[in-house]
Protein backbone atom coordinates (compact mmCIF):
# COMPACT_ATOMS: atom_id res chain seq x y z
CA UNK A 1 0.00 0.00 0.00
CA UNK A 2 2.84 2.38 0.84
CA UNK A 3 4.42 1.77 -2.57
CA UNK A 4 1.22 2.85 -4.31
CA UNK A 5 0.97 5.99 -2.20
CA UNK A 6 4.50 7.11 -3.03
CA UNK A 7 4.14 6.10 -6.68
CA UNK A 8 0.96 8.16 -6.88
CA UNK A 9 2.96 11.19 -5.71
CA UNK A 10 5.60 10.44 -8.38
CA UNK A 11 2.80 10.37 -10.98
CA UNK A 12 1.57 13.77 -9.76
CA UNK A 13 5.11 15.13 -10.16
CA UNK A 14 5.32 13.65 -13.67
CA UNK A 15 2.10 15.40 -14.66
CA UNK A 16 3.42 18.67 -13.23
CA UNK A 17 6.65 18.28 -15.23
CA UNK A 18 4.61 17.73 -18.36
CA UNK A 19 2.51 20.85 -17.66
CA UNK A 20 5.76 22.81 -17.34
CA UNK A 21 6.90 21.67 -20.79
CA UNK A 22 9.17 18.83 -19.70
CA UNK A 23 9.01 15.07 -20.07
CA UNK A 24 6.37 13.39 -17.87
CA UNK A 25 8.61 11.69 -15.32
CA UNK A 26 8.44 12.08 -11.54
CA UNK A 27 10.41 10.65 -8.64
CA UNK A 28 10.06 10.47 -4.86
CA UNK A 29 12.57 9.31 -2.26
CA UNK A 30 11.09 7.92 0.96
CA UNK A 31 12.70 6.99 4.26
CA UNK A 32 10.84 5.41 7.17
CA UNK A 33 7.47 5.96 5.51
CA UNK A 34 8.03 9.66 4.83
CA UNK A 35 8.98 11.60 1.72
CA UNK A 36 12.49 13.05 2.10
CA UNK A 37 12.93 14.34 -1.47
CA UNK A 38 11.07 14.79 -4.72
CA UNK A 39 12.05 15.49 -8.29
CA UNK A 40 10.51 15.89 -11.69
CA UNK A 41 11.94 16.10 -15.15
CA UNK A 42 13.38 19.53 -15.90
CA UNK A 43 15.40 18.64 -18.99
CA UNK A 44 13.86 21.19 -21.37
CA UNK A 45 12.49 23.99 -19.16
CA UNK A 46 13.72 26.45 -18.01
CA UNK A 47 16.70 25.60 -20.26
CA UNK A 48 18.08 22.44 -21.79
CA UNK A 49 20.06 20.36 -19.30
CA UNK A 50 20.23 16.65 -20.09
CA UNK A 51 21.14 15.80 -16.47
CA UNK A 52 17.90 17.10 -14.98
CA UNK A 53 16.06 13.78 -14.96
CA UNK A 54 13.45 13.30 -12.24
CA UNK A 55 15.60 10.78 -10.35
CA UNK A 56 18.65 13.07 -10.45
CA UNK A 57 16.55 15.99 -9.22
CA UNK A 58 15.26 13.88 -6.33
CA UNK A 59 18.77 12.69 -5.43
CA UNK A 60 20.01 16.30 -5.45
CA UNK A 61 17.15 17.29 -3.12
CA UNK A 62 18.08 14.84 -0.33
CA UNK A 63 19.47 16.71 2.64
CA UNK A 64 23.13 15.84 3.19
CA UNK A 65 22.58 14.63 6.76
CA UNK A 66 20.21 11.92 5.44
CA UNK A 67 22.78 10.11 3.28
CA UNK A 68 23.90 7.96 6.21
CA UNK A 69 20.55 6.19 5.84
CA UNK A 70 20.65 5.78 2.05
CA UNK A 71 20.45 1.99 2.22
CA UNK A 72 17.08 2.37 3.97
CA UNK A 73 15.71 4.75 1.33
CA UNK A 74 13.35 3.83 -1.47
CA UNK A 75 13.35 5.76 -4.72
CA UNK A 76 10.03 5.70 -6.58
CA UNK A 77 10.04 6.72 -10.23
CA UNK A 78 7.38 6.58 -12.90
CA UNK A 79 9.87 5.25 -15.45
CA UNK A 80 12.60 2.62 -15.29
CA UNK A 81 15.81 4.59 -14.65
CA UNK A 82 18.17 5.29 -17.54
CA UNK A 83 21.89 4.49 -17.37
CA UNK A 84 22.82 7.88 -15.89
CA UNK A 85 20.19 7.70 -13.16
CA UNK A 86 20.88 4.01 -12.54
CA UNK A 87 24.57 4.74 -11.95
CA UNK A 88 23.80 7.63 -9.65
CA UNK A 89 21.29 5.59 -7.66
CA UNK A 90 23.91 2.89 -7.14
CA UNK A 91 26.62 5.42 -6.24
CA UNK A 92 24.31 7.00 -3.66
CA UNK A 93 23.61 3.58 -2.14
CA UNK A 94 19.82 3.73 -2.39
CA UNK A 95 18.53 0.45 -0.95
CA UNK A 96 15.38 0.02 -3.00
CA UNK A 97 14.09 1.29 -6.34
CA UNK A 98 10.45 1.01 -7.43
CA UNK A 99 9.55 1.98 -10.98
CA UNK A 100 6.20 2.31 -12.70
CA UNK A 101 6.84 1.69 -16.38
CA UNK A 102 9.46 -0.54 -17.97
CA UNK A 103 11.58 1.23 -20.57
CA UNK A 104 13.10 -1.09 -23.16
CA UNK A 105 14.17 1.95 -25.20
CA UNK A 106 16.26 3.82 -22.60
CA UNK A 107 16.03 1.92 -19.32
CA UNK A 108 19.01 0.39 -17.60
CA UNK A 109 17.43 -3.03 -17.14
CA UNK A 110 19.05 -4.37 -20.28
CA UNK A 111 22.58 -3.85 -18.88
CA UNK A 112 22.13 -5.49 -15.48
CA UNK A 113 23.92 -8.66 -16.58
CA UNK A 114 26.90 -6.69 -17.95
CA UNK A 115 27.90 -4.47 -15.04
CA UNK A 116 31.53 -3.95 -14.06
CA UNK A 117 32.46 -5.45 -10.66
CA UNK A 118 32.10 -2.18 -8.70
CA UNK A 119 28.51 -1.67 -9.85
CA UNK A 120 27.71 -5.40 -9.65
CA UNK A 121 28.53 -5.32 -5.93
CA UNK A 122 26.26 -2.31 -5.46
CA UNK A 123 23.32 -3.75 -7.41
CA UNK A 124 23.42 -6.84 -5.22
CA UNK A 125 22.56 -4.55 -2.28
CA UNK A 126 19.74 -2.77 -4.12
CA UNK A 127 16.24 -4.17 -4.44
CA UNK A 128 14.62 -3.41 -7.84
CA UNK A 129 10.83 -3.62 -8.02
CA UNK A 130 8.75 -2.98 -11.07
CA UNK A 131 6.93 -2.28 -13.06
CA UNK A 132 4.13 -1.35 -10.65
CA UNK A 133 1.07 0.74 -11.43
CA UNK A 134 1.85 0.25 -15.12
CA UNK A 135 -1.69 1.19 -16.15
CA UNK A 136 -1.05 4.68 -14.75
CA UNK A 137 2.64 4.97 -15.72
CA UNK A 138 2.68 3.42 -19.20
CA UNK A 139 0.66 6.30 -20.72
CA UNK A 140 3.23 8.74 -19.29
CA UNK A 141 5.99 6.72 -20.96
CA UNK A 142 4.10 6.66 -24.26
CA UNK A 143 3.73 10.46 -24.15
CA UNK A 144 7.44 10.78 -23.31
CA UNK A 145 8.36 8.78 -26.42
CA UNK A 146 6.05 10.94 -28.56
CA UNK A 147 7.53 14.15 -27.13
CA UNK A 148 11.09 12.87 -27.66
CA UNK A 149 10.36 11.96 -31.27
CA UNK A 150 8.78 15.37 -31.92
CA UNK A 151 11.85 17.08 -30.44
CA UNK A 152 14.20 14.99 -32.58
CA UNK A 153 12.15 15.83 -35.69
CA UNK A 154 12.28 19.52 -34.78
CA UNK A 155 16.05 19.39 -34.37
CA UNK A 156 16.36 17.67 -37.76
CA UNK A 157 14.14 20.40 -39.26
CA UNK A 158 11.36 17.98 -40.13
CA UNK A 159 8.56 19.84 -38.35
CA UNK A 160 7.92 22.45 -41.01
- Assess the beta-strand content as a share of residues: 15-25%
Termini Cα gap: 47 Å
Q: How would you classify the helix and strand content by structural class?
A: alpha/beta
Helical element count?
A: 5
Order of helices and strands: HEEHEHEHEH
Using DSSP, what is the number of strands? Answer: 5
Mean pLDDT: 94
Helix content: 40-55%
Strand ordering within the main sheet? 2-1-3-4-5
- Approximate shape: globular
Unreliable residue runs = none
Rg calc: 15 Å
The major beta sheet can be summarized as:
5 strands, mixed
Please give a structural write-up:
By secondary structure, this protein is of the alpha/beta class. Helix content is 41%, strand content 18%. It has five helices and five strands; from the N terminus they run αββαβαβαβα. The chain has a five-stranded mixed β-sheet with strand order 2-1-3-4-5. Strand 4, helix 4 (117-123) and strand 5 (127-129) form a beta-alpha-beta unit. The chain is globular. The N and C termini lie far apart (47 Å). The model has no long low-confidence stretch (mean pLDDT 94).
Summarize this structure as a short list of keywords or feature phrases.
single chain, about 160 residues, alpha/beta, 5-stranded mixed β-sheet, 5 helices, 5 strands, about 20% strand
Amino acid sequence: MEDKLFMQRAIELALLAEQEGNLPVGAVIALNGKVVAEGRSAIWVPEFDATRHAEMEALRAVQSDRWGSSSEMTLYTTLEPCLMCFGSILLHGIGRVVFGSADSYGGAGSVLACLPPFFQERIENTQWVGPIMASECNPLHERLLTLEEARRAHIRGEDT
